[in-house]
Amino acid sequence: MPQLDPRQQLRKQIRLQRSALSPLQQLEASQAILEYLQDDPEFIPMQRVALYLAFDGELDLSLLINCLWQQGKQVYVPLVDPTKNGEMCFHRYQASSPLQANRFGIGEPIFDAKQVIDAQQLDLILAPLVAFDSQGNRLGMGGGYYDRLLAQISGDKPLVIGLAHDCQQINEVPVQAWDQPLKRIITPSRYWCW
Ligand SMILES: Nc1ncnc2c1ncn2[C@@H]1O[C@H](COP(=O)(O)OP(=O)(O)OP(=O)(O)O)[C@@H](O)[C@H]1O
Ligand SMILES: [Mg+2]
């Protein structure tokens, strides 16, 4: 059998650990993230928030999404942009949004170009990840979507925060030249800032 490269091996290992978390651990993690954000004065004025619909044991943001909707804030989720070659876009996600199953079987909004927002208009992007290290290096699912997007963002807006379970921390991410490090990561036990 061909050997997986180190990044692929890490993805496989950490995804398995993440998927093994119990429903209670998942719930407690979701509640912890909600509390960090609700207590963060920076978060209160933020109106346009991009996040993700969890799968594969990713930290579930359903509680946060409901909270944002109740506060009248605008929620966006990443979709692969069918009008562009291999680019991700952020698409409005409302309680009333018609959904269809994506390639992971997760319901996501049906693409409508009018509901796509330019990333620079967002106040906050909550980014998923597979593994991270104590320097803020990030390993994603392997599509390069966030790397390409984050490479275009400069300055303080939008604020980008990676979200992960504690078990997703590894000693050292074997970084590649195109990987975009994160300046902030929140896990249930810690708010990392670099
Ligand atoms: N800024 C960029 N410009 C062009 N290609 C890029 C850029 N960033 C990443 N890529 C390409 O994307 C591919 C996947 O990158 P990588 O393995 O780092 O994905 P990832 O960080 O795990 O995924 P994601 O960013 O979607 O979470 C690489 O082969 C790389 O060539
Ligand atoms: Mg990368």
Automatic annotation (TrEMBL):
Keywords, comma-separated and alphabetical: ATP-binding, Ligase, Magnesium, Metal-binding, Nucleotide-binding
Pfam families per the UniProt record, alphabetical: 5-FTHF_cyc-lig
Cofactor: Mg(2+)
MF (Gene Ontology): 5-formyltetrahydrofolate cyclo-ligase activity; ATP binding; metal ion binding
Catalytic activity as recorded in UniProt: (6S)-5-formyl-5,6,7,8-tetrahydrofolate + ATP = (6R)-5,10-methenyltetrahydrofolate + ADP + phosphate
Family: Belongs to the 5-formyltetrahydrofolate cyclo-ligase family.
Descriptive protein name: 5-formyltetrahydrofolate cyclo-ligase
Source species of the chain: Agarivorans albus MKT 106
